[in-house]
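Z., the sequence and structure:
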Amino acid sequence: MHRREAGRLSARDACRFVREVYSLDAAEAAPIPGARHEVWHVRGIFGSFVFKRFPADARASAEREPDLATLLRAAQVPTAAFVRANDGSFVTDCHGQPAHLQTFIEGTTPNQNEAPPWLLDQSAEMLGRLCRALSGVRGLPHGFPKPWFTFDLKRKMLEYDALIIATSRNRRLSATQKREIAADLAYKRATLTEIAGIRLSRRTFTCGPTHGDYSVRQLVCSADQISAVVDFSAACRQPLMWEVLRSYSYADPACTEGALELDALGRYVSAFLSFMPLTRKDLLHAADLYYVQLVRSTYGYRQVLLEGNTRPDLLTFARWRTQLCRWMQEHRSKVKEALAELAPAPRAAR
């Protein structure tokens, strides 16, 4: 078997693995940047493929993707086709880590907050179609497990304290960066007390199988349509309205500065609802759920300040989300009002 001490593959490693395990010509390979896991674009005389290698503890995610892709294609949701290895399996062992191979789909992937108007409409519809197609899937993990709704306030404050200290000690940051990031973290820490009073539970929302990380960054597009949805490694059961609201905020250019455009948001949500109906509670409490999640999340800050990740886009993304927190804190009631207009009328008491 192809085992060695875990470490990032080289292009030669990726090509050799594909040749030996899949019996496909692999003349060259190039890493695909910005992917959640280690992902390679492999090319040869038999075509182009995407080779993905997961962390050793992510085997369940690796094994989940091929079955979900098959189900989605049967429901006319475009996604990649997975390739069986020589032993007939979809998931193989690559140097001690699970891996698989899928067809490469030609097209472009938009950057965050660069979706043109046609893509905003199609993205919302595609998410609705995707959720509808997955509605019968069982066994997915919970994206928002029950303990998430009863978080430990003191522990989260200590986490922010650790990040503030790490900011002051980080030698890669300029004095200006340290000052701005520390201000971000202090703001989010102070806001924790406010969100502790927002009472939510899983029962408040319609939870169902969904992509788990749906955004324009997971779409492959041609000039005027979505060619494929990719990367189902984060598929889970979670509040569907959270995925809708989050994916809108990552798509619309109007959200570049960390603010939502309410008319565009209404159109996006309406497009989703035409394929996947939600309840009045879903729509009335969606802004609270997204706001609470944004305030509590340390993604980006944690990776750079505590884990030593040097990707500059992580801090940019983290700071954008903090700006969105500030906007949501001031305008959350307006988001609720905009979404309430789309909600089904409450049932009359009998």
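The chain has a mean pLDDT of 93. The chain has two domains: 11-103, 117-340.

Let me know what you think.
H.
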